[in-house]
Batch of 4 targets.
Target 1
Amino acid sequence: MYLRKNSPYKEYFQKGILLLKETGIINHEDKIRNRRNKKCLGMVKYIEIGLEETSVALEIFLFGLICSTFIFIIELINAKFMSWLIEYRKQN
């Protein structure tokens, strides 16, 4: 329970948690949560994946990398131009 020290709500939370324990809701949630986590992974067969299978994903990644680099360069040029334009207007 995350409450600050001497919080006026501490008693309400304690009563609420006690009520949840008495009705069995906390035990029920714990059983459901533990049941989901117990999966046997011993019989899973792994498939080897090479460059041929991942070439499309690699191409998409490289395309995005090239596009983002191009946009970054455009932003740098724009920032330089805008600073030059501001300095030019101050002089005139």
Target 2
Amino acid sequence: MMTIVFPFLRNPWIQIFYWIFIFTGGPGPVISSCPGNIVQPSNSSTAVVFVSWDQPVGSGTEDTGNQASANGFFGVGPNPTAVTYRYSLAGLTNGCTFTVLVPDTGNTAPNPPNCPTTPVNVTTIPGATTATNTFGPFTCTDVEQGAILAQCDPMSGSQFSVGSNAVTCDCTDNGGLANACTFIVIVKAGNTQPGPPNCPDTGVTVTQYGESTSARATFGPFVCSDAEQGSIPATCNPASGSTFNIGGNYAVTCTCTDDGGLQNSCNFFVNVSAGNTQPGLPNCPDTGVTVTTVGGSTSARATFGPFVCSDAEQGSILAICIPASGSIFNIGGNNAVTCTCTDNGGLQNSCNFFVNVVAGNTQPGPPNCPDTGVTITTVGGSTPAVATYGPFVCSDAEQGSILATCNPGSGSTFNIGGNNAVTCTCTDNGGLQNSCNFFVNVAAISLAGNTQPDPPNCPNNGVTVFTVEASQTAVATYGPFFCSDNDV
């Protein structure tokens, strides 16, 4: 519809309305999904930036001048670039235009958030498997925006399971650059009160003997059962071993305290009756007992005692030791032995000492048997023949040199051939042994034209050896010696 105003009329506001209808061959092309103007900041020093979008769809024929694809490189700068898509249908055209702007923002990534550098520890309520933990807020410092609030996953106030839980917090600036940090939330199971100590329901009764009006009372040890720590030893006041006067009104309080500071207590009474006196201490060795292993063993049997206590009423009382004398103990010095005397009235006294087991004897090294064996010759087909060899020795860590014993011994007779085996063995004072083997080869030569051999090359000055410290004997090694013979 169009409106025409005629100014020459007396009433200029008289208007004439009429319609103009234009008929075409049909409706024009329809374009759907035309993108809006795109702004994609540049966060780098490059001159162009790759930008993508969803390509519009037209119902007609796409013009050949349209953007070839739904993406492209655009220059960085303050001016937008127009992108147009045109379609034709039945002689009519329709277009879709939008702009792409790539401003140079010069954006820099924010610094990491200020997450805690050490684990955050929380404790559940007793019996729970999770706990709530609040933390933060954490922020990042950004050159362009100042402070940026970090977003954490899981967020502050979440439930965390018992154990180690990772939390990641990140900041993202307006240009899309981000930075993150991670910290650990450690959840520990909450503490529960330990149970009461196992104090004796009927108290403790001791008997006093002699002229004394008091007696020493020993009791316990008492323990408490704790859900987190297992068994907790109780501390008693007065302590076990304290002296109590005759009577039955001496209260003892025993208390267990767990690692979280929770406590539980029990009470009982000590009754001291006139009568028996406690035996004296057994005569345990002040320096303990030391034994040595044999043959590379990791344990040894230790014998000790017997130990006795002096008792005013009974005289001497035999102590009972745990572990008992004759028991096997492992190598080390922490093998505790407790010996206790108990009199007829049930009063006891104990002593303690340690059994120290040290590693004992080591095996000697092998004897120095000849690697190539020993070769001798007979004359004129004679058999058997006498072979001399050695002596051979072994090196021993405890004894130094040990003389080997050979079987057959040096000076034995051997038949012609090379399969005459000899075994030489060293045995140390602890019974440990080591051996070597070699062969004696007996070769025959003809008697015809035989001449007497020259004398052996014995040392003109003899052989001198030295004893080890405090020893009265020493091992002497010499030879072998040889004779020169024209026939052999």
Target 3
Amino acid sequence: MEPRARAGKNVGKETFNPKEIGNLLFAYGDVEKPLPETVRVADEIVTEFLEGVCFEASRHAQVAGRQKLKFDDFEFALRHSPAYLGKVRNMIDKRQHINKMRKTFNQDDDTLAKEAERAGKSGGGGGGGADDELLEGLSDEEDIAKPSVVGSMKGGGSKKKKRKREGAD
């Protein structure tokens, strides 16, 4: 099936958010608030281009005997346009780099948490010296002795809050 025949069902309907298309046009030098007709035409052009690329990629996957699309299929579809192909490859490389860095960061974060947990167990509380200095002037007894007003002025609230207030008085 030809991609243009498939695109006919979406003609006149907006595929993308008009604000996003307007921002895209503004980024490429159009006025800040483009005409609705301009946004509609740009939406149709972008939609048709994406449908064409996806159709070519799906056809390549089908010829290769696969049902799922791979990056190679999109490379094949964009092989005649080196600018698009370079941008797509750059985007994929960046995404792989970000995923690799996230994985490294998460592993480092887990390792640090485990080390802190071990230090807390084996150190006997000696590892939190900076926290102890920050909490020196605060006392839990003062907070319990002077209950703060919780709830509305009408005296509403849960029974638990009322019991806590009664117990503190």
Target 4
Amino acid sequence: MSPPNSLLLILITLLPQLLSLHIEASIEEPDNVQTLNTNPNTKKFNPKIPPLKKTLSSSKRFEGSSDFVNLKYHMGPVLSSPINIYLIWYGNWKQPQKLLIKDFLLSISTTNRRASPAPSVSDWWRTVSLYTDQTGANISRTVSIAGEYNDLRYSHGTHLTRLSVQQVIATAVKTKPFPVDHRNGIYLILTADDVTMEDFCRAVCGFHYFTFPSMVGYTLPYAWVGNSGKQCPEVCAYPFAVPGYMGGGGPGKLSPPNGDVGVDGMVSVIGHELAELSSNPLVNAWYAGEDPTAPTEIGDLCEGLYGTGGGGGYIGEVMKDKEGRTFNVNGRRGRRFLLQWIWSPVLKACAGPNALD
């Protein structure tokens, strides 16, 4: 047999093995294509997790762009000056939990992004900063923690209501750890995992409003978010926890980026509320719908979406590290977070810094 024929026979013999190697390489290739960052210890995935049977605002969810979203500006103020956050830690908080939340808040501002590679928390806030007031002033991209108050004695009990939470703010203001910051201030009340709140777990994971002069003495924008770790993680820390009815063959919970289901879940809710509070602080600025007492705001429109390809049970394309922890943005000091996307007034769609298109 001539040498060319011998070579042909060898190639025919090896062809099935070569095809097998090509197929295996093709299966693995997506992890190395169009990556969100250059860290070899992370990879992308788009987990499918069926939505909760009773979502907190299922009627408000719009997956992807929509011409039916009638988001309007109602001529009220937005937080266009540098934003000062006044933290009220209500109940007993562990120091690592407090540091985790503060690292997230300090990752928002462009002045605190030194160690935050893209996609970053600061990049995520850029979508929020696209909203303007009637003068054309954008929401500020400068966010700082201006003060902290520890209410270790549960001064208003272990069960709060939408009214009594304002008394918590009044206590902090009247004892003068905090100034009355009308122009730049956000008062953020964070309750520990043993504190219950009116409608918590059933209808809300967090909310924002403004204080009544009759309760606090001033009109101040505020937000409340609770730690659901012991009460309803399957609702308010989802998808880091899943309901019992999803067990047995259903999708598994995602691993939280910082190892704390309750607090990692809180971070996304805090981001949601801060975005809405900044764009609608007195409930007369940016929202959809005709009822200002129940507005559909810029976070509501994208609830449950964290990346490209979200919708239909998929949360969108996010990343996981070599330990399997799920995230979509980077923060200061090497922190990682999973933040829901925000409605963009420019794209008229949900948007985030980890988008692939």
